[in-house]
Design a protein that fits this description.
By secondary structure, the chain is of the alpha+beta class. It has eight helices and ten strands. Helix 1 crosses helix 6, helix 3 crosses helix 6 and helix 5 packs across helix 6. The chain is elongated. The chain binds a DNA duplex (14 and 14 nucleotides) through helix 5.
DNA sequence: CACCATGTTCCTTG
DNA sequence: CCAAGGAACATGGT
């Protein structure tokens, strides 16, 4: 599932390819991804409309379309869920089995493919209102992150997946950022001190920027066809085929040695998701019970 | 068959 | 009402 870096790479890739293309027909194969937008409404809104711009917000793609002879633009929101992909295909290419929505652009199709159909393709943009700051934007500061964390006793790893806290961090980069910041994933959010939050902020930015610069974490197959190369293909580019292990410091490295200290990486389950961390580099802070015990001792 | 998966949302429980 | 935990969603890979 694409986290922020892959969405960013995809948006940069698609924006110039879609610009000024006009939608001839709208094919909806899975209403579930419309997130409440009536199919007729989507067809009516998109048919004849032209792509004007595309931007990312968190893990969302926000398309701006202009209907023929209209002054106003229409926002269209996309989300890749766990398995979503978006790409252009020549009109004569076969559509994938799980094509949820297909926009006919004349000589090519813009395909939203999503095997598990957890993704979204909708005119309803209200989801954006709930999002916290962009991690690579000016609002994402240690001070703001501290205030977002201060009233939560949830483990910090779980809290980082909350899109209200910071928009775009997912399961991979939550583990990665905590490793870089040397913070235990089980540390209670509201017990982090400013220096640690400072480190965490920097670590989040660093792992995201690294991944964006790398192209993506998992090779994105933007052609929709693993055997084809060409314009829309990232995955097979030379140097882009490094395995997860070569790109990530702890994620999916259970039992393998920490790159810093050699201690085997652990995997635990938090909020029903896997977390990976180094128990040596990311030691939990001294438990409060231990602190109490000590003070009781010194009193005695 | 078992378990796992880059996400979000809904339901239940306390 | 709120926070937290877990199941559900749907499909495929190992």
């Amino acid at each position: 599932m694409p986290e922020l870096p892959e969405v960013e790479v995809l948006v940069r890739h698609l924006a110039p390819l879609l610009k000024n293309k006009t939608i001839q027909h709208v094919h909806i194969n899975r209403e579930r991804v419309l997130a409440g937008t009536p199919p007729q409404k989507l067809r009516k809104a998109l048919r004849g409309a032209t792509f004007e711009s595309l931007a990312r917000r968190g893990k969302y793609l926000r398309f701006e379309l202009r209907a023929a002879n209209q002054a106003v633009t229409l926002p269209l929101l996309g989300h890749l869920g766990m398995t979503g992909r978006m790409y252009l295909l020549p009109s004569n290419s076969p559509l994938p089995k799980h094509a949820a929505v297909v926009l006919d652009l004349g000589s090519e199709n813009f395909v939203f493919e999503d095997t598990r159909y957890f993704g979204k393709f909708t005119l309803d943009t209200t989801a954006l209102d709930e999002l916290g700051p962009e991690p690579l934007g000016p609002e994402f500061t240690p001070e703001n992150l501290t205030s977002a964390l201060k009233r939560s006793s949830q483990p910090i790893k779980v809290k980082l997946l909350d899109q209200c806290v910071v928009a775009g961090v997912g399961n991979i980069y939550a583990s990665e950022a905590l490793f870089l910041a040397c913070i235990s994933p089980s540390r209670q959010s509201n017990t982090l001190r400013l220096p640690q939050v400072h480190r965490l902020c920097g670590a989040i930015k660093k792992v995201l920027v690294e991944a964006i610069n790398r192209g993506s974490t998992v090779p994105l197959n933007l052609s929709g066809n693993g055997t084809r190369d060409g314009l829309f293909y990232y995955g097979s580019a030379p140097g882009a085929s490094a395995s997860l292990e070569e790109r990530l410091r702890v994620y999916d490295r259970e039992g393998k040695p920490c790159f810093t200290c050699g201690t085997p990486i652990l995997r635990v389950i938090q909020a029903a998701r896997s977390t990976f961390y180094c128990p040596q580099c990311q030691r939990a802070a001294r438990a409060s019970s231990e602190v109490k015990h000590r003070s009781r001792k010194s009193l005695a």
